[in-house]
From TrEMBL:
<keyword id="KW-0547">Nucleotide-binding</keyword>
<protein>
    <submittedName>
        <fullName>p-loop containing nucleoside triphosphate hydrolase protein</fullName>
    </submittedName>
</protein>
<feature type="domain" description="OBG-type G">
    <location>
        <begin position="5"/>
        <end position="274"/>
    </location>
</feature>
<dbReference type="InterPro" id="IPR031167">
    <property type="entry name" value="G_OBG"/>
</dbReference>
<dbReference type="GO" id="GO:0005525">
    <property type="term" value="F:GTP binding"/>
</dbReference>
<dbReference type="GO" id="GO:0005737">
    <property type="term" value="C:cytoplasm"/>
</dbReference>
<dbReference type="GO" id="GO:0016887">
    <property type="term" value="F:ATP hydrolysis activity"/>
</dbReference>
<dbReference type="Pfam" id="PF08438">
    <property type="entry name" value="YGR210-like_G4"/>
</dbReference>
<dbReference type="InterPro" id="IPR012675">
    <property type="entry name" value="Beta-grasp_dom_sf"/>
</dbReference>
<keyword id="KW-0378">Hydrolase</keyword>
<dbReference type="Pfam" id="PF01926">
    <property type="entry name" value="MMR_HSR1"/>
</dbReference>
<dbReference type="InterPro" id="IPR013646">
    <property type="entry name" value="YGR210-like_G4"/>
</dbReference>
<dbReference type="InterPro" id="IPR006073">
    <property type="entry name" value="GTP-bd"/>
</dbReference>
<keyword id="KW-0342">GTP-binding</keyword>
<dbReference type="InterPro" id="IPR027417">
    <property type="entry name" value="P-loop_NTPase"/>
</dbReference>
């Protein structure tokens, strides 16, 4: 059936991790029921905003998701977030909640690293001025690297002996060693493919083991850098420095505290706000709307937010965080419907009730298994009732609306 995709949020104290988590798991958005079977204390449901399929067919008025929400064709698809605690230097040696932090991390398919780019908090989150946030990024990567490397080297002698004795392939041996990090065969194969002229495993020296671990990290923990507190005067120079050092990284500029404030003001009916955009309207802008009038203090505050954050950066960046993480993971929203001609479910006239996130290139039969379980599939159809082969794959706007017909009596 496959497990849920998990996105891990990491960051030192006072970097804005809790605020970002609150913005991504906005309680106001929890309209549908709960899609996840188990929610641990450090797990939460985030909402990935996508253009809903209802928009393609002009069916926005009839769209009512079972999970998440759909507002005017903008759909919030639930996704599992993991709040990884205990981020302190030397976590790999067990300092602080080090072991818990690192073992929690293994479940993540992707990391969002909340970095305080204002430089106003030191490595332990204490107030300062002029701290270099580059250190936080390097430190986190190094911590994970030393942990995986340490685990592997600790038993390397016996790993090599077993490898030679059983005549295993490099892939089989590494799968046995790295499988505990929720890494499947495909992921480990990609790590090895990335390394040119890879010698036989029994001939790896220390440098080669380190190269393999770094390749594994790249595939196992792709990371989005959330450059938080972007509106602070010291942030610009730090952002430039980070982008120069990590030109291939996915970076998103954010102000999570601004996002929380805007959502709060919208809930209190002081403003009309569309998350993920620069659009904020007040009673001054929309006199006919049911909005509360502003006092001077609040009016100035909103003007400052518009000038320093929204108009300058285009948004607060928080909605874009999950979108960037899912792009890194190549996830696509796939809609499963009972009736392929009108897109309704088992009953009623509501459309596109169910949506799940699937890796681009996944065969449609795998989607069927995830949704239907172990039943005999008679036919798979897409838009217009077109038949789809079991091994056909899902892509953006292709085979992303599916209907499964099962052989009667094949349910367990």
């Amino acid at each position: 059936m496959g497990r849920e995709i998990v996105i891990g949020l990491v960051g030192k104290p006072s970097s804005g991790k809790s605020t970002t988590l609150n913005a991504l798991t906005d309680a106001n958005a929890k309209i549908g029921a709960f899609p996840f079977t188990t929610i641990d204390p450090n797990k939460a449901t985030g909402y990935l905003e996508v253009d809903c399929a209802c928009k393609r067919f002009g069916l926005e008025a009839s769209c009512k998701p079972t999970y998440g929400y759909c507002k005017h064709g903008k759909r919030g698809v639930p996704i599992m977030l993991l709040d990884v605690a205990g981020l302190v230097p030397n976590a790999h040696l067990g300092r602080g909640l080090g072991n818990k932090f690192l073992s929690d991390l293994t479940e993540a398919d992707c990391l969002i690293h909340i970095v305080d780019v204002s430089g106003t908090t030191d490595s332990e989150g204490k107030a300062t001025r002029g701290y270099d946030p580059l250190q936080d990024i390097e430190w986190l990567q190094d911590e994970i690297f030393r942990w995986i490397l340490g685990n592997l080297k600790e038993r390397w002698g016996s790993v090599v002996r077993k490898h030679v004795g059983t005549k295993s392939t490099t892939l089989e041996t590494l799968r046995a060693q790295l499988g505990g990090y929720y890494a499947n065969k495909n992921l480990i194969a990609k790590c090895l493919d990335d390394i040119p002229n890879l010698p036989a495993l029994q001939h790896w020296d220390e440098e080669m083991i380190e190269t393999v671990v770094r390749s594994f990290m790249k595939h196992k923990f792709p990371t989005v850098l959330a450059m938080n507190k972007m509106d602070h005067p010291d942030s610009d120079k730090n952002v430039s420095k980070i982008i120069l050092r990590y030109p291939d990284s996915k970076c998103v500029l954010t102000s999570s505290i601004t996002e929380i404030l805007l959502r709060k003001l919208a809930a209190q009916k002081y403003i009309k706000y569309e998350p993920g955009t620069e659009f904020v309207d007040t009673k001054d802008d929309l006199p006919d709307e049911d909005l509360k009038p502003l006092d001077d203090k609040l009016r100035n505050r909103i003007e400052n937010i518009r000038d320093l954050v929204l108009y300058r950066f285009g948004s607060t960046g928080t909605v874009q965080l999950l979108q960037t993480a899912t792009e890194l993971l190549q996830l696509i929203p796939v809609y499963t419907v009972r009736n392929i001609h009108n897109y309704t479910g088992a009953s009623g006239s509501e459309v596109f009730r169910n949506c799940l996130l699937v890796k681009k290139g996944t065969p449609v039969i795998s989607v069927a298994r995830k949704v239907m379980g172990d039943v005999t599939i008679a036919a798979i159809e897409t838009v217009g009732g077109v038949r789809v082969g079991e091994e056909d794959t899902v892509d953006v706007n292709k085979n992303d609306i599916l209907s499964f017909r099962i052989v009667p009596g094949s349910h367990n």
